[in-house]
Specification:
7 helices, 11 strands, homodimer, alpha/beta
């Protein structure tokens, strides 16, 4: 299975590395990290360098496309080179996937038009502007389009995809290999579960990673 | 808080990137990725390049040290340059932490002697050879030494550390920001929960990422 993961400046690294760590154990996995140009991108606030081994022009087809989120996705949403590449490679993919605000990039490319999708909880209200129906679930399948909620949800998305593609045995084996038996110290990982003032405050301070629409 | 994360060839990227994505949101976080040499390391089977912005010699003190796991940790466990650096920087750290088989590297450096620690479930039986008492828990604190179980456990470790250092409000806020509301498709993430034949088979095939002792 050929897996193509897009890298870009100011991306959230875990959006990509979570699913990568799952998908690389799929049968005959061939992973390629691709950037606008070949070479280094800087994730987060710039303290982490990741290498794109291929430029967009080098990758013309794939089985799985994965687009992580931002805040760097804001620039991608109006980047014609990236959007055109996404439309072309999507014609070849068996699965077109995203994590966090990566779905906004797929949406900006027109690929989620008329479909259901999810994204980071803070960005759900951005999807309708692109003709996409937001669904506040952790992993959303609509045909070959698979979108995950914020950041850490990419791990669940990738395991769910492996389950769909290859069945429960590889999905469970990969989960066991990654010892994915989550035990966060609090149960505060969604706006429905976190303290309400925290949710409100985060909404008020979230515009930095969203596009003005 | 200065956070120093060790990178090396054939490491499991998620071991580092999971906790990084949590710790980088701590107050006044300064993250540095460090390698034996400055420059690129190749994680996993080699398909992911990560950049070490500093060489070992460049980093002489830190608040948090984080050592991820392997299989590349096997080479580190007999690498005197790395082991000496770990002993020196550990003298300066407030917290010395590991994920997955990273605890075997701390153990090989002698830093966990007489302490309790955890590691990937497949590597628990390697700890006693270094005078360490294995504890089959997801996150283990023993003084300033904090060890996490396999791969994905680093996320829980980092959130638990934030909770310990800064309290429940930042820990919950970071969890909410990362939308860490885990929902794996199966409950198979530990040897106690996965199908028994799968656990047995994985034990039989696990020597590749363990040191001969």
């Amino acid at each position: 299975m050929r897996i193509t993961i897009l890298l870009f400046d100011r991306m959230a690294a875990l959006d990509a590395i979570g699913p990568y760590e799952v998908l690389r154990y799929s049968e005959n996995a061939e992973v390629v990290f691709v950037g606008k140009e070949k070479g280094e991108v800087r994730a987060g606030q710039g303290t982490l360098g990741l290498i794109a081994d291929a430029a967009l022009a080098d990758v013309k087809d794939t089985d799985v496309l994965l687009v992580p989120g931002g805040p760097g996705q804001v620039d991608l949403m109006t980047d014609d080179e990236v959007l055109s590449w996404l439309r072309e490679i999507d014609k070849t993919s068996k699965w077109t996937t995203s994590v966090c605000t990566g779905s906004l990039v797929l949406a900006a490319a027109g690929l989620l038009q008329g479909r259901k999708a999810t994204t980071h909880w803070l960005a759900q209200d951005q999807l309708p502007a692109f003709g996409v129906e937001p669904v506040a679930e952790r992993v959303v399948f609509d045909g070959k389009y698979v979108t995950a909620a914020g950041v850490s949800a990419g791990i669940d998305m990738a395991l769910t995809l492996i389950d769909r593609v290859a069945g429960s045995v590889p999905a469970q084996a990969i989960q066991l290999g990654l010892e994915y038996d989550p035990r966060p110290p609090y149960d505060a990982g969604s706006p429905a579960k976190a303290p309400e003032p925290m949710v409100t405050s985060m909404r008020e301070n979230s515009r930095f990673f969203l596009q003005e629409i």
